[in-house]
Amino acid sequence: MMMCKEATRLMSLKQDRPLRFQERLSLRLHLSMCGACRECNRQFALLHKAGQHKSPASDDTDEARSDS
Amino acid sequence: MTQDASEAHHRRLTEVRPRLVSFALMHLRDLSRAEDAVQEALAAALEKDGSFAGRSGYETWVFGILKYKILDAMRAQKRQGTWQPLEDEGDDEAIERQFQQNGRWQKDARPSSWGEPEAAFENEHFWRVFDACMIALPDSAARVFSLRELMGLSTEDICRELGIKENNCWVILHRARLRLRACIEKGWLKETAS
């Protein structure tokens, strides 16, 4: 079983590149059981959006992200 | 430029300048360098098309120019040795404090809900805390995070720009996000609740 610290590594990675199948699966499983990590996942997503708010336009296409 | 256009330009500049400086500061970590980069971007914008100044889309356009100026300035900082990208800033401790030895969250570090993003973004206090937490990040963590999340570069581009390995980039970003979330939660949520 993956622990929270490792799960946060995948949550962060997910903001930067698409996760591999295995990574996505382990993260999804962990998130389904851990409320604190679900919050952390939302916080990382919010940090990303906050970054975009800092300038009026962003070239970021969000293709590296997926909702897992 | 007619007088009207000139006034509109001036008004727009007054509005947008602080945002430009704050944006540049997150990347360059030095106020005078940030102001120089903004000055250069505004001068370049005026030179390219002074009549654009009062029109919509101006801000987006100037930010686009500023991004190039920031990258130039960052290269200059590297060349002059005023900044070295560090792969390890020894900030493990700040991260370790959030987790128990078995990899679970420490009780007092467990993330709480920040509510809807849009509500946070409309809250001035959120931005004050966000900016303060960005400034408090270790140097390389702040720059890599800014390039990724503020400028929107890919980690591949960031690594090429900074001369670090992509794997290191991901490690730096993971730590930066954990640090930021802890800092923001402490400064924003706790104060809002009290």
From TrEMBL, chain A:
On whether Zinc-finger is a keyword of this UniProt record, the answer is yes
Q: What UniProt keywords are attached to this protein's entry?
A: Metal-binding, Zinc, Zinc-finger
Q: Can you give the residue ranges of the Putative zinc-finger domain?
A: 4-38
A GO MF annotation of the entry reads: zinc ion binding
The protein depicted here goes by the name Putative zinc-finger
UniProtKB/TrEMBL annotation, chain B:
GO terms classed as biological process? DNA-templated transcription initiation
Among SUPFAM superfamilies, the record links this protein to: Sigma2 domain of RNA polymerase sigma factors, Sigma3 and sigma4 domains of RNA polymerase sigma factors
Q: Which residues form the RNA polymerase sigma-70 region domain?
A: 15-79
In terms of domain of life, where is this protein from?
Bacteria
Keywords attached to this Swiss-Prot or TrEMBL record, sorted alphabetically, are: DNA-binding, Sigma factor, Transcription, Transcription regulation
User: Tell me, what's a Pfam family for it?
Assistant: Sigma70_r4_2
Tell me where in this chain the RNA polymerase sigma factor 70 region 4 type domain is found.
130-180
Chain segments annotated as coiled-coil in the UniProt record: none
- Cite a single GO MF annotation: sigma factor activity
What the record says about family reads: Belongs to the sigma-70 factor family. ECF subfamily.
Extract the PANTHER family matched here: RNA POLYMERASE ECF-TYPE SIGMA FACTO, RNA POLYMERASE SIGMA FACTOR HI_1459-RELATED
Q: What is this protein called?
A: RNA polymerase sigma-70 factor, ECF subfamily
